Records
---
Amino acid sequence: MPVLESALAKVLAMPTAAPTLATPALELDAPTAIAGASAPRIDVLIITAVKEEYDEALKVDDGALDAWDKRPGPTGLEVAFRTYQAATGAPMRVALTRALEMRGVAAANSAWPLITAYKPWILAMCGVCAGRRGEVNLGDVVVGSILYTYDTGAIVAEYDNDGTRHERFKGEPGPYRIPAVWQQRAESFMVPADAPWLVLRPRTLEDQGLWLMERLVAGEDPAKHPDRAARCSSWAKVIERLRKLKRVTETGLALTTHGRAYIDEKKLLHPDGLPKPEEFRARVGPLATGNDVVRDPRIFDRLSESMRKVLGVEMEAAAIGAIAHLTDIRMLVMKGVMDHADDDKDDGFKMFAARAAAECLLAFLRNWADLLPGKGEAETAVAPVQTGHPSVDPPAWDTRSIPMTALPLDLIHVLAEEYPDVRDARAVWERAGGKASEVENISRPRDLWQRLWVRSMQGASARPAALLRSALADLPRNSVLIHSLKAMAQPTTAEAAANLITRLEATKSPLHTKGTLELLEDWKEGDGNVSFAAICPALAGHLSPARRSELQEILSRLAVEMQTGALSGTVNVATAAVVEALLAALEAT
């Protein structure tokens, strides 16, 4: 067992003062839906190391189906829950928390009780790191393909002939790798150039300094230049850095001989104007984890001796790899580059780097949700079981927030195509009886209409049917809108199943052939638009044993009589299909 993993296992085995899940009787998996399979409490658990990283992650709204729900977790520390929609149409349930401090043990202590309580498919982390200069730029995101420690191992003392002591470090990195298919997907992951959060990316101190020096070469006063606030927002830091590099004078603001030669060389190499900042990138490569904050211009030279392609250095990622390995779940770490761990190290990019890492992490998981179990296609929404323990239960996701066959993607597509502008969407919403304030300024039409549809389903003043009628006023022949409106009048599969179960259980014993036929025919009249074959497994599994036995006996007799023609003209085709489907489900279970 690797050194870090062994150490974490010992730490996590220690009793703590924090409340724990003492009773094994609590069932923490979501229940089986009336016609579906069991689902995990959450899909993704995201750990952040510090409050700034946590706060930036809370700002990720793309694809969100509801608002963050913050509540105490099993240890009493805050956990935020939210549901996002994956590209497949399936809901992706996320829990987000932060450690009390930096470093791996703190991250592990935060993750362990939440893994135990919520059973995620993926343990993830987002935050900031130092990036390798020349390989990644400030603000870029590093996707950790290999997570390893660079400062765990053994120190061996050796003595030469004159007794001088020499120490030699023998590392035990204990690397953790993401699956090959995840790495391949990450290498093809790209952020749209128009992603709204990209405008938050600040200019580097180097870029700001070049602008200032260019103004001095042109004989202008950069302090009074109309573009100063936009092009050199970190004015004091830029001047301090230029003085430290001896490019401007110690007093006043004039170029030194060295500074003049530096800017002249830059202008010579770029005759059409100084280069613009490089575009944002998400890069895939190894992340090195250590226990100390690093300011060392040669740190990546040293790290590359044992891990040639290392891209980032930080303080928690390997612990996430170790915990994921111990608990046999997937892991994914993305860190935004806030500095290069050298003499230019400062916090100017910290907030953007944290935001970029969170945006990329959730966008990647949404886009490639087929990598999560059960997320390859739109699934039936299932509300998790509530244990009655507030410190354990995540919020009870309202099944109304995600219709029984997930979101109606064809309808969302039509609305996004026809009403891509927020103003148009707001007009449709208001015609349906909604309030203008309920329509948020979301730039992506698809995400805007996903949010509006969910809000409508959850009881907003613009109800779903009214919203469809409002759109049909503009698009009276749109088949998707017409079909969706008609479908709203039909009972859901779950409602139909519950209706028939209630009728069967309420009938006095013993069941009779005639009464059973009448009950089934009556049910078909009211709920006949629902696929009976789809709900038969639920019916068979939810009936009481006594009623199930009675019903199976009657249906077997009816099936024989229908086959022999004894009931010819008595049982219609639809009811005969119901008898056959239900009998098959009873016999199968």
---
Amino acid sequence: MDSSVRNPTIEEMKEWDEDELLKWIQQKRSKLLEGDQLEKFKAAHISGEAFLMQAGDEEFFRKKCNLAFGVSWTLTKISAEIVGIETAGIKRNRQYREDAGMSDPASKKPRWESETDTELQMLAASARQQRERIRLEIEKLDQLPVSCPKDVVSCPNSVLQLSNPTFDTKLPFPFVGYAVPERFQVNSEDYESYWYYTGRENFVELREEFERIRHSCQRSALTIYGTRGYGKSHLLAALVCCLAAREEKIVYIPDCREFMKQPVPYIRAAALFAWADDESKQQRIMALDTQEKIDRFFQGQSDVVFVIDQLNALEEEEGDDKPTINKKAELRYWLQGIEVTGKAIHASSANNYSILNKPLKQSSNEIMYVYGGLTEKEMEHWWAQRQEVQLGDYTKDEVEDFTGRIPWFLEKCVVNGTIDLAAKFFTEIYEQAWAFEQEIQTRYYKEPGELQRHYQYMRACLFGRFIWVSSKFIPNLVDHRYFYDDKYDSERGEFEAHYTCGICRNAVASMVLENKARFDKGIWQSLPEYTTNPCVTGFVMEQAILAWILLQG
């Protein structure tokens, strides 16, 4: 918006013809009306007086003028600003349409309060429209024919479609009032915030886990925890769309970092979407301008589902000052207090120590671990969708090994249509993994017992071996972002350990080997598991030879 463009008075705008109005709008928002949106606006022949008469009426611009939602919303806001300058805003009963700004001055609100009220009204309308779009999209998916796998409990066709690794679609983003987080791929020209989604095989598992939690008397929350870049946010947003389409009350917080900046408006926007089908409840929500009022509101509600993504953003991080640490703690406790009124789904990347410690205590929180990257079928589809991508000096096996098939890493390795595993992004990942390993060696230099436990765990991860102690019991000794254990073998009484991607494996392998590494038959025993993956086979053989050389001096 060009703030230097003067806003006209109501009387001035009343005299404008359609060309004068269009010229002013284009000066104020130069990129708002372009292409077909410009042609549709011209075809409506809106004069200055007509523009004023529709102030605050988003449906007029969207339905009567056939403009996109984002364009309609912006024009609605602009018209409301003009009316607000002299009439202190638009009354909810649209009285301005009757007297064109001749309301009693004594009844006027302060300008800032009126503008806030108008924005909230438009935000509530936006929530209703976005929820309707979601409902229509999910209904379309439910109508598509699909076969239900034998091991899957009967569920809606939309859930099966969203679990199909060869299925691609676009869904309306289930949040209004804020920009869609960058990790979601959105068409920059799409005013209605549709994001791209590709089916994931464990989506049906996520849905089943949630249904189990919601009907449990002992469990109140489900946490999706695992590899950074796995696609947890996309899984959650897709689940929110499915639930919202079935008129569930879903309070969705897609980005805890943005939530931290303005917690009250952010929660209020989420609540407006949750109760989009109840305009009277939306009126109550618009009045919630403090944390205390929000607390009281949720205490009176039932059957609410809270979906909170990027929960690790509220954990203390290195470099946080005291005020930031305190604010994060306060917001965590506040959310926990609100969630008591319903069920909750969280998502967090690894290295969240609060979550790591929960299984060791009595907790009402269930954890769904999602480690690694794409499955075989998902990876096949990824390549099929990118047939134009040039491999350059790499093979597909090398790309998959290096990235661990992690969706985020896979997207980052495509630079200008060509695979580039030397991109700056991967250098930073390598340095992160290396720095953590270096820190462990420095911190526990005088504690050989702790170092030995660390090296034992890391060797198990590097060679796909079993380890007797899970990383959950030694949280400070493991970089959970890139190394983990998942399967427990009850007969052996041990956990199977892994690394997430080849780049992090390579970053720490030499240091682990050089520090009290032992050469044993276990390294060779792990080879048969990787005979179909030449990259891993080569790594195991290389490390085994280096270990033997070190052992022999």
---
Amino acid sequence: MTEKDVFVIVYNAMSLVFIRNLPEGSILVKAIKLILTSDWVLLSLLGISTALLSFGMDAVSDKLITENYLLIVHSKFILNLSNKYILKYLLWVAWPIFLASASILWTHFLSKNAIGSGIPEVKTILLGSDIKGFLTSRALLATSFGLCLAVGSGLPVGKEGPFVHIACIIAKLLLSLPLYKQFRKNKSFLRDTLSAACAVGVSSTFAAPIGGVLFSIEVTAIYFPVRNYWRGFFAAVSGSIVFRFFAFWFADERTITAVFTTKFDRFPYDAQELLVFLLIGAFSGLFAALFICLHAKVVELPKTLNFFSVKDLKIANFLYSLLIVIVISSLKFPHLLGPYMGLPSKEVIDQLFDEHSLAQQDIWKSPNIFASLFLYFLLHFVFTAFSVSLPFPAGVFVPVFTIGATFGRLVGEIMLALFPNGIHSDEEIGNIIPGGYAVVGAAAFSAAVTHTISTSVVVFELTGQITHIIPVMLAVLIADGLAHALKPSFYESMIKLKKLSYLPSISGFYKGHHKSAGEVMRKVEFYIDENATIKHISYLLQNSSLLDYPLVTSNSLNLIGTITRQALENVIKLKVKRPLKNDYRSYCNETDEMLSSESVIERSINSDDDIFNETLDLSLVEIDDAPISITTSTPLLKIHQLFGVMNVTEIYVTNCATLIGVITLDELASVIKN
């Protein structure tokens, strides 16, 4: 059963059962269909279904984490046994090994597209590229279940990136319902819906609709159409409301509150503390550049070193992943370095955001709060770089958010130790609130790693307070600006490591602004003459791997349009399998392609049948007669805008309508980088 079959069954059960009992053609039927096919209903379904899945996955992963922690730390059965520390250690390490291994194997065998954050691939898709199998039900199952296991293992991984992936899959599957069949071939509508799904994925993770929309725009879009703004907000608000309502109904919440509620004073900082907040932003930018560099090295590490001398790279990579899990879980053992190392991330963030000193909590006192915070910051800095590189679904926002909060809290505790009675200013005393420093550090470091200003808005929605709006904004701006100058964002770094198609951003200060299309284009090697034969097209397909081929006139090579590779292969299959049947469209509807493309092309080339020497009947194929084309004098900045706005992977260069060259997305990116 395919994903389409599943969604058609759900659709029939929920909507058609009611509609079919009404008279055909009645006003009520038309009104119901009009409502069900509206943007509002589609976006509501997207937000609600994503939020329900997010809440369920949170419940599962939280249960896996807390049960393991409570079993090891507070189990009376284990406490009464001899050699309890050895047994506790073995159980503590065995749990993440089992869950991480299950997540890796599940992801590997079901869909490798679920590996990693998912945001780099979504950004590539929104630019017009296609990643086979990325938005399918198999990828949905692999990502959702694999993410539960990965987060439940206790490793420092988040869920915001994979959940953006999940939301985009849900959006794609919703569009496969019979209700929305008129939108399936509308690439612009699909792109707008996927863009809204990105906002839903973030808002359903943090219950932050405003920050979720802004964050999704910053990390996925080069140019964002304003007409799509309301879609993102409506879907994000729908998802975040449902997400928090379920927390209120089923998770012992007193009311609908922020995820990490803070209770800072009305005047939580003195003006003189702004200098310290600026320093937190500067160091966060430096640490973010170091983190991205470390992560890139970690990703390349298994490719350069074979730790186990195993010939099979798949087994070697699996053993390497297990080694990483064992080392991290061993160092997180509560009875080794301190009980704070084994705390779940949510509990750690709650304690770091507390307005009182951590000296009042025994869990951070060994050997002292400064050493404990520094050790937690240093180890989780390294742990996160290794964990998010493992082959399972893993987001990076929550881990770097925690790292930044730890660094900010360390600075706050130092300030509290230096000024225990507060800072005197104009005969008034401003109390030091170390939790405020943690909020600033979390916002600054996560903003620097992801290169997003909207992280500040996410922090305000997460904490439910905007008392630190000025220090947060200042620290975020400094951290983001410094990180921009030193390294690409985490997501851009992953795009480069995965060698995905990508369009780098350029500013008005770009040195190559004087270049034109004639200087960066390359000559068109493969094109289709309007009088080309089937055999000639077969040779063309065999010797190239383009997805679209330009169609030109015979004499002047004027650009007529483009034809997809799939359409050309289907025409050749039609000639091979049914040479006497000319109705190509009915053939496609009658049967699936039973022959592989390679065998069909090979057969048409080697055949002496006159049918393959016939000229291609252009009425059999769908021609895009409006491809994006420019002249040789078009400036590079305008070309960049066309790629970003039109979301295409190639632009043709013409001179008086004559095709003379082509510029691809990858080639433009290479020109900009160089």
---
Amino acid sequence: MSRLARAFGGIWSRRDEVVVGFARFPVTILAIAALTAVGNWEVAAPDGLSREVLERISLALVAMIAGSAAAALHLERRGAGYGVRQGASACAGVAAAAAVWFAEPLLVAPPALIGALLLAVPLAPYVGAGCAGFWAFVWRLINTAALAFVTTVVFLAGVSAILASLEYLFDVPIRGAVYGHVWVTGLGFVGPLFALSQIPRQMPAEDAVDRRDLVVAGVEVLSDFVAVPLLAVYAAILHVYGLKIVLTGELPKNQIGWMVLSFGMAVLLLRLAVHPFATFARATTRLFLRFWPFLLPGPLLLLAFAIAIRIGDAGVTPRRYALVLFAVFLALVLAAQAVARLRQDIRIIPALGMAALLLAAAGPWGMMAVSVRSQAERAVAILHAAGALEDGRVARTAALAPADADALRSILRFLAEAGQLDRLAPAFPSGEGNPFAGGRDGLLARIEAAMGLPAGPRGPDRSWTYSARPGAHAAVATGRFDTLVPMLDWGVEAPGTEIALAGSPLTIRPGPDGLTFTRGDVAATLSNADLARLFGQVIAARDGDPAARDGPLLVRAEVDGREVALLFESVSATIVAGAVESVFGRYTLLLAAADWN
């Protein structure tokens, strides 16, 4: 209780700062409140929003939060009037949210845009204001975020303890969703509001650092004895591997791009972290600050070679685009070190990162546009090589090799997920047989058939999930069932359970192919196909009746003329082409022992 009182006291003692924070960032705080409301809605009604809509709303609001905060900080540092600041903040936030919300038609990559906006927040006050104080400001933001998180978590843990005590000691009914609302509101709104209130009005003018500060001392020790030695060893490994490729002609392994990306990011982050330590650091950190650019050219060349091979073989994808972008970014950072006035300006690293992410976010040169264009051209090239094209259009189904069929199917799935299957429309003749003539429903399957793709595994059209909620209590009529077998997992092999019956026992054994009932030499199985068919009926009924969606999920089935029932605790079903293809879930089996005697 004392920790709760201290946490609440810490927040309450800064109430004036919180009010000032609201006045400085009203648009940002309104977006945070909206995001918190969405989180609470999801807690109250987990099936109220589809996953796709929930993701779009959440990402749009995150973009609005970052864009509005960056605009407000920049104009506040420039001395703009209050109305101008808030108007620009609102415009920036709405524009960022709209770009994310309409990401598919605009070919925007939301992760890249949001990453650029997040980098813009610390950079905004120091655009056109010199680099002195930038490190101190970022350090202040990190400490503020950590303080807000710890204080809020302690406060929420105390509130949760109070609620649990009321329920235990006084039998006050408190639903589990109440705890969810408390934590979502605390972490989603109270903590960020507290953090915003701690952003300084007067930006630091120098990068002074107190070596006696416990956190600074910890970073210094981490750099001297852990980070720098590990980076040196990893750099040696990458350089030796590059030399091996040169001497043996071996092609780089598939994951080398991500290994180089991780190494490069670690080097740059350490460079930023220890920027003001040069005057008092030990020899290892001082050597790193002086020679860190020389660690990167070798791995950068290795990355460029690996990417060129992969793109030559399979075209550009968002992942490969990201690696190319990182290689360009790293090359520009290294080039900046050759300019004396930029060498000690650490803003150049996040600024170039923000510029690279903005380049990737949208436009004809963006991540999605380039990837879609590349994969559409690759699909046409595969069809051309297979002899399926005449005058640049599909004239006949192709005899595709298995590897080409898999590649085409992968391309089509990517274009479908990006909403860009129309890019292939020029490759098909107009008139009868054109897969685009039948509308959007079933378009992917019609294109596959027109290209002559053999039947093969397809990605799920959608997934359907169920989880028993503590607040949705309802009685389940068991009827004549008198035997329960709890805690079974459908689709997972497990040891058999024996039920004593007159004569020989009945053994129930879950497996990857279904649920097998064995007595003596006679066996019967409730198969995956049987359960999938039953779940098709269950899903149709529940989707058509929202009131029944949260109720108990009891599925009745027949096994060799005997009735059984499965009471599910949780389910995840995959639906392909309108039919249930697979089911996984935890359930309790109900049966009547007399049926098996």
